[in-house]
Amino acid sequence: MGSLYKAAAVVVLLALAVGCATDVANRYYLSEHYPARDPTTVELLWRRPDHPFIVMADFQSRGESPEDIRKKAALIGADAVIIATIGGLYDRSTEWAGTDKESGTYTHITGTAILYQRTSNQ
After folding, report:
1. Which of 85, 84, 73 shows the shortest CA–CA distance to 40?
2. Which residues pair with 112 in a beta bridge?
3. What is the predicted pLDDT for the residue at 57?
């Protein structure tokens, strides 16, 4: 009977761990608050944009997706969010990162929410 309880406890712990964001840290830099916007209008960027911007906030966590970070950026009124993923799995039999079948995995995600700087004619 003890092993049944242990198995049930493991299943419950796994269920709690899967789908839960951990190691969450959010840092907001602006004192002005902006209205939330539709997440589909927030650009998802994988590199710094070419045009000028102001950093609104930084988000980081484990267990979240780029879409989760986009939603956080939308809640604070960001125009875009710059995503970076860190860590992940790797295949020991593959030497080159570009050919590694695990190259799309990550353990940690960060996002920088930004507002594009408006010029006088925008």
Report:
1. 73
2. 58, 82
3. 95
* pLDDT reading at 79 higher than 90: yes
Could you report the per-residue pLDDT of 25-52, keeping only the tens digit for each?
788 999 999 999 999 999 999 999 999 9
What end-to-end distance do the CA atoms of the chain give, in Å? 70
The β-bridge relationship of strands 22-28 and 53-62 is antiparallel
Main-chain phi, psi angles of 14, to 5 degrees: -65, -40
Residue of 99, 98, 56, 92 whose CA lies nearest to 74: 56
DSSP label at 104?
Answer: T
Secondary structure element (H or E) that encloses residue 16, with its range: helix 2-17
Provide the token pair at 57. Answer: 């906030």
Hey, where are the domains in the chain?
22-116
Give the whole-angstrom CA distance, residue 66 versus residue 104. Answer: 13
CA 12 distance to own-chain centroid: 26
d(CA 45, CA 66): 10
Percent of the chain with pLDDT over 90: 47
